[in-house]
């Protein structure tokens, strides 16, 4: 289990769990139980919100405490002075046919599209970005869980806003406490929902374009306009979610065999 002592990341994680628990408390104990009096409709909505919160937390835990794809550090220091004497030499290494590069901060070799995270102080395979909300990097091995976290938080936000507004309309005699909690919860859902939906769309575009955020930022103007031949969208999504049936992509469990078995050409032992 990974845990980073990053103050910003710790605060964001605590804030995330606090908002999810507050959402669960308001929907169950402030709205459903007092207003619906254990009716079948109330029970159904209680199961829905509990399932969404559970899947959100489980996805967050898997994204936050899973290995995003850290490149193993060498057991002994390596001497790269012969290939890192100047920038030109290092640049030529980046463009070689294999795609391997050298990280001067980790002092190790790394496969193509790997980048160094200044917060984790490690190189990560297909690093997209370091996300404070999971206090972890988003890389090749945990991108699926991060996307599922965004998906379920967005779905929870939409459900909560719809349910709260509907409850206030159907029960106009709601108490002052219920109204205040409902307003606060709607504001939280709107702000957090808009944020995660925006990031979710960015993640979908990065998969379709087969470029992480860092890959895109490092492209020059000429490279951005170059036409590329990409695999089908289904294959691109399977690279992230696995080759299992699409319905199983919605479960935050490890169904992607490539996370466990890394091709020998993508490993380097020192």
TrEMBL record:
InterPro entries: Palmitoyltrfase_DHHC, PFA4/ZDH16/20/ERF2-like. PANTHER family: PALMITOYLTRANSFERASE ZDHHC16 (PTHR12246). Residues 100-216 form the Palmitoyltransferase DHHC domain. This is Palmitoyltransferase. It is a multi-pass membrane protein. It catalyses: L-cysteinyl-[protein] + hexadecanoyl-CoA = S-hexadecanoyl-L-cysteinyl-[protein] + CoA. The chain crosses the membrane at residues 12-33, 39-58, 145-171, 177-201. Its main location: membrane. It holds the Pfam family DHHC. One of its GO terms (molecular function) is protein-cysteine S-palmitoyltransferase activity. The DHHC domain is required for palmitoyltransferase activity. The lineage of its organism: Eukaryota, Metazoa, Spiralia, Gnathifera, Rotifera. Coiled coil: none annotated. It is found in: Membrane. Signal peptide: none annotated. It comes from Rotaria sordida.
């Amino acid at each position: 289990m990974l845990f980073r002592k990053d103050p910003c990341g710790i605060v964001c994680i605590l804030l995330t769990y606090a908002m999810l628990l507050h959402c669960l408390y308001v929907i169950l104990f402030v709205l459903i139980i007092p207003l619906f009096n254990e009716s079948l409709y109330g029970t159904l909505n209680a199961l829905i919100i509990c399932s969404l919160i559970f899947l959100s937390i489980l996805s967050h835990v898997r994204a936050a405490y899973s290995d995003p794809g850290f490149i193993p550090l060498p057991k002994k220091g390596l001497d790269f002075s012969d290939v890192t004497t100047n920038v030109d030499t290092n640049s030529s290494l980046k463009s070689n046919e294999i795609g391997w590069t050298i990280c001067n901060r980790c002092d190790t070799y790394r496969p193509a599209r790997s980048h160094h995270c200044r917060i984790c102080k490690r190189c990560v395979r297909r690093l997209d970005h370091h996300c404070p909300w999971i206090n972890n990097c988003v890389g090749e091995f945990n991108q699926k869980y991060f996307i599922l976290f965004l998906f379920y938080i967005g779905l929870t936000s939409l459900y909560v806003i719809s349910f709260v507004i509907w409850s206030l309309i159907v029960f106009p005699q709601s108490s002052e406490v219920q109204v205040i909690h409902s307003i606060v919860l709607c504001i939280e859902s709107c702000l957090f929902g808009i944020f995660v939906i925006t990031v979710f769309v960015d993640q979908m575009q990065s998969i379709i374009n087969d470029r992480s955020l860092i890959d895109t930022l490092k492209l020059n103007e000429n490279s951005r306009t170059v036409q590329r031949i990409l695999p089908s969208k289904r294959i691109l999504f399977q690279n992230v979610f696995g080759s299992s049936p699409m319905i199983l992509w919605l479960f935050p469990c490890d169904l992607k065999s490539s996370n466990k078995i890394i091709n020998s050409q993508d490993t380097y032992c020192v």
